Amino acid sequence: MGTESLEKILDRYQDAGRDQLIPLLQEVQEAEGFLSRESIVSIGTRLNLPASKVYGVATFYNQFRFSALGENHIQVCRGTACHVRGSAAVLDSIEKELKIKPGQNTKDGEFSLEVVACMGACGLAPAMSVNGEYHASVTPDSVKKIVDTYRKESENGNGKSD
What we know:
The protein is about 45% helix and about 10% strand. The chain is α+β, with helices and mostly antiparallel strands. The model has no long low-confidence stretch (mean pLDDT about 90).
C-alpha cells in the first residue's frame, strides 16, 4: 500500500455511513493505487455494508480499479473526435502489440491499458496518453514506435518510478 495505511484511512471514517462510501473508495484507491479485495471487505465492515454492496458500487463507476496499473499506463481516447479519426484501429494495434485488452496488464507488469471516453484533447485526435504524456495524431503504424519508446525507458531505468 502507498504512504498511508488502510487502517489510518478507515480510522478517519469512524462514524461514517453509506453516504461516505464513494469518498472512502476514492481515498483508499489513491493510497493503494487500486481497490484490493482486503480493502473492499474492510470498507464494508467499517460502513456496516456487505462487501458485495461495496464491490457493486465500485464496479458501477469506471474510476475504480481492482488491480495495480502497469509501470506504463496507456489510455486510449474513444471520444467522438478520436473515433471519427481512427482510434478504434489505434486501440486494436495496441492490443495486438501488447497482447492485452483494456483493463489488463501485460504479464511482466510493464504496461496496462485503459479506454477512456474523452481526454479533452479533441484537436489532437486520435489521441492516447502514456503515464499522462499525450501523443497526438496516433496511427496504427505509430503505436509500435510509441510503445517501444516506453520499453526503452523502462529498460534504462527512466520509466515511471511510483
